[in-house]
Design brief:
The chain is of the alpha+beta class. The chain is built from four helices and eight strands, in the order E-E-H-H-E-E-E-H-E-H-E-E. It has one domain: Aminopeptidase (3-Layer(aba) Sandwich).
Length: about 160
């Protein structure tokens, strides 16, 4: 189950790590830096056009983690319907991983979506991410053969939110 909901206040979360990190709603000017992080984080990243497409959708939520004025992480979530939310992408720059930033981003988008279930897909090869999602309360839902363009398999994970 998602923890640390007490950190949410007026759409800003302060993460206590080496220095202050602020979680805030993204602005359009953040898209380029978010995409740079996407490209550095994934072997098959989403394209800039897909980010721009999602930006225009009313059901999509974008949040960024900012330190010293620089975007160091992001999350994109969307509401599929009244019951189901979906994490499209989440990434934190490698030098900032393991400091609670991804956890705070995930908590923030889950809270904002307000869904009963949150879905996400993760590569079967990405054990580090799967372990992270499991510690956040996500559980295996289904296997997705050849989900990625590379032919790599994924698993869909789901988080059930107690209301």
């Amino acid at each position: 189950m998602i923890q640390d909901r007490s950190l949410i206040k007026d759409f800003v979360i302060i993460v206590k790590i080496d220095k202050q990190v602020q979680i805030r709603r993204a602005v359009e000017a953040d898209l380029s830096k978010m995409h740079d992080i996407e490209v550095k984080s994934f072997s098959h990243p989403y394209g800039k056009d897909f980010f721009r497409y999602l930006w225009k959708q009313k059901t999509t939520r974008f949040f960024v983690a900012v330190s010293d004025g620089e975007v160091i992480g992001y999350i994109i979530g969307l509401r599929r319907d009244e019951r189901v939310g979906h994490v499209v992408s989440i990434a934190v720059t490698p030098g900032q991983q393991g400091k609670g930033i991804g956890k705070s981003l995930l908590n923030r988008v889950v809270e904002d979506l307000g869904s009963e279930e949150i879905w996400l897909e993760v590569s079967t090869e990405n054990e580090k991410a799967r372990n992270f999602y499991e510690t956040m309360g996500f559980r295996f839902k289904e296997h997705l053969p050849r989900y990625y363009q590379s032919g790599e398999d994924a698993i869909r994970m789901v988080l059930f939110i107690a209301k």
